[in-house]
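Subject: Sanity check before I submit

Could someone independently write out the structure tokens for this chain? I want to compare against mine line by line before I put it in a report. The sequence has 401 residues.
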Amino acid sequence: MKRISFRTAGESHGRGLTALIEGIPAGLELDMKRDVDPELKRRQGGYGRGRRMQIESDQAELLSGVRLGETLGSPISMTIWNRDWENWTTAMSHEPPAEDVNPKALRPHYLPRPGHADLVGALKYDRRDVRDILERASARETAARVACGAVAKRLLAEFGISIGSHVVSIGPVEVEIGELPQDINAAADPNPVRCLDGDAATRIMGEIDRAKERGDTLGGIFEVVVTGAPVGLGSYVSWDQKLDGRLAGAVMSIQAVKGVELGIGFEGARRPGSQVHDPIVRAEEKPRSGGIGRASNRAGGLEGGVTTGEPVVVRGAMKPISTLRKRLPSVDLRDGSEGDAAVERSDVCAVPAAAVVAEAMVALVIADAFLEKFGGDSISEISRNFDGYLTYLTERGFGER
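---
Independent answer below. Compare away.
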């Protein structure tokens, strides 16, 4: 049974976004300006973002679930107000339009964009104006996800689990990755494209500039790394309890993500087993894995749907954004005539931001699995359960039982 669940609501140019997260235990210290707002700011960054990010300055307003700086165990609700709403009050009004309103003020779109939810949504929900679809399908919704994920990250941090991300490639440029720094975000965030290779970053920014000149967009690959997760999160006994499946589904749900792999993923399918599986070794310095570790981590910290105690490594492949200034062919939903797809204000590249969103989604899944294993209604109760498990791992030994 899920211990943590969340929902988001709101449209891209509506009044704001609402985030609701349930299952966070009581007694967790939580401060919006310290724990949530910095994550929202990270999501807004990255070379290649559009003008919208210059308008918004995302901050979360807490509505419920916290009293005197600590969570209550009840649902936590937050709102992120859209500053751009003031420019869209007519187009996004909740009321029927006035009879004398200029139709252009409603900002309709009738030519769906290839690669976006425009057309399939219009057919599914019986709409002509794809504005009704794109406002919710927009990746602006991920700001609310990041707010929920920030709460989950705060919970995990209480137990020594941290989550970071970095960009592996954008367009044709691949980043040379050596040994990852202990604090990945501290190293990646100052970089304009959130990669750990300065030379590659320069080449990537050049590719983004050239794509912008062509009226095109670029996608790429990001990597999320979880450190500190103990052995034993997740389960192999039922398909929907496997943690690798839960992580893949969460990351795949992010707008424009079309592929997910754990560890070496698809590369492992091209190698023999002797070059894929991680040798098991004694590792007394790793109490969270019972003093037993892996000589490598090609599995990405998961075996059989269960964490091994090694870092959990998840990669996501993001396709290029669907809004192109060099418009692709489309069909007008009013009369079936051929035309060029609509253009909506958008980014050239949002892979660095997608990595931050993926951190949030991974945090929500890992936090859910953590509470599934060590569940309780308060931080103090969970701490007792967790400490008892770590003691068991330390004292378990290798003798007969």
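---
OP: Matches mine. For the report I'm noting this point. The first helix runs from residue 32 to 44.
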